Amino acid sequence: MLHFMSGKEIFDRYQLAALKKGLGSHEFDYGNILYQALRIEGEEKVFQLLELAENTGKRIAISYSVPGADTDAEATIVILV
Asked: CB 3.0-4.6 Å disulfide test: which of 53, 68, 72, 78 passes with 58?
């Protein structure tokens, strides 16, 4: 029987890999992106995106919008790439 990992399990797996590989590794960089995504979007959305990413061979990324001349706000979104 196949066991599909939950978003929380996937998140934890990436965080553990980040700790094992350490600063400067690809695993550390991706673990940091996932942590920031969690802070931006919250657990429910990030865990759902992780499940989707795992099933489609994609990864999560953070996109930063360049603010327009008439606004000081910088929009940040979490996307699959």
From this structure: 53
